[in-house]
Specification:
Blueprint: H1 2-50, H2 57-67, E1 70-78, E2 81-88, E3 95-101
Helix pairs in contact: 1-2
């Protein structure tokens, strides 16, 4: 009987460790997706703000973010500079990221 209890204990610890690893992996994937989406969305918004492409800068940013399964949470356009905040994933493992795109300081 003591052997069965030890086996059950080892399985419980292994299961908890595996579940924790899955959670960390999922959070890492969401963080990478959010960072990439923020970069791409900021670039799209800056392109629209500068006139390189047509359309509303924030609408462009939202479209790009949605294309990679992220949501645009905030979009600020000042001249040709766009700053965006996106969210990827849902629940406690969701990730957010910010990005800025536009000409270098002093050139825009």
């Amino acid at each position: 009987m003591a052997g069965a209890a030890a086996v059950i204990g080892v399985l419980a610890v292994a299961s908890a460790a595996a579940l924790g690893g899955v959670a960390v992996g999922t959070a890492s994937i969401h963080a990478a997706r959010a960072a990439g989406a923020a970069d791409a969305a900021a670039l799209a918004a800056a392109d629209a703000a500068s006139g390189a492409v047509s359309g509303d800068p924030c609408d462009r940013a939202a479209q790009v973010a949605a294309a990679v399964a992220a949501a645009l949470a905030e979009c600020i356009v000042e001249g040709a500079v766009a700053t965006v905040h996106v969210r990827a994933g849902s629940g406690p493992l969701a990730a957010t990221a910010r990005a800025r795109a536009g000409p270098p300081p002093g050139e825009g």
